[in-house]
């Protein structure tokens, strides 16, 4: 009687999936402890042995760089923008968009700020542009990556010099991003701009400017709002959107 072949072993988790799982587990700890987080803390949070981390990453520095890239990834906020119902009034749509972009920028600021406060600057030069238009967020006094690393200092903030254009220079966010940040950031900026254009489309015939232009201005406005000084007057997204839609005059 022929011996049946042994059952095939289920394939283990691939390297990229393992890396992603570790990074997702590490992010909250990095936001809390910065570079002082230990690989043993990360391993416990991920439910794995500490040695598994070093099979996925060369060292803790590489893991921290991967955490920075994950925090900067625009995927989640782009999904939120795409999920905004176009059946709502324009003001409601834009307020949802502003809230989503602000939350993403705050997340970036928390992670990068914690790393900077613990004395670390990112080594990675390939970080994508956040939907808010820059690589920084949160408090303006938390420069979390060096200018050499990111082509801009977080002290400049998302609306700082060399990040994205204001409406006066005649260029769209994707065009300016391509000149200063490279293809990854250009793609992120373009996707954000396109997602915002969709929010204006239902009112195209009644708008003073084309949706493409209004989306660029709105993106610039949100970048500027992210640079609100600590201790300064707080302006809600409701106020920003209402002023944007209705103007200052009654």
TrEMBL record:
Top-level taxon: Bacteria
Biased composition (Polar residues): 144-153
Pfam family, one: TetR_N
Region feature (Disordered): 117-190
Annotated HTH tetR-type domain residues: 16-75
Alphabetical keyword list: DNA-binding, Transcription, Transcription regulation
Gene3D superfamilies for the chain: Tetracycline Repressor, domain 2
Position of the signal peptide: none
DNA-binding region: 38-57
Recorded GO MF terms: DNA-binding transcription factor activity; transcription cis-regulatory region binding
Name of the protein described by the UniProt record: AcrR family transcriptional regulator
Organism placement in taxonomy: Bacteria, Bacillati, Actinomycetota, Actinomycetes, Streptosporangiales
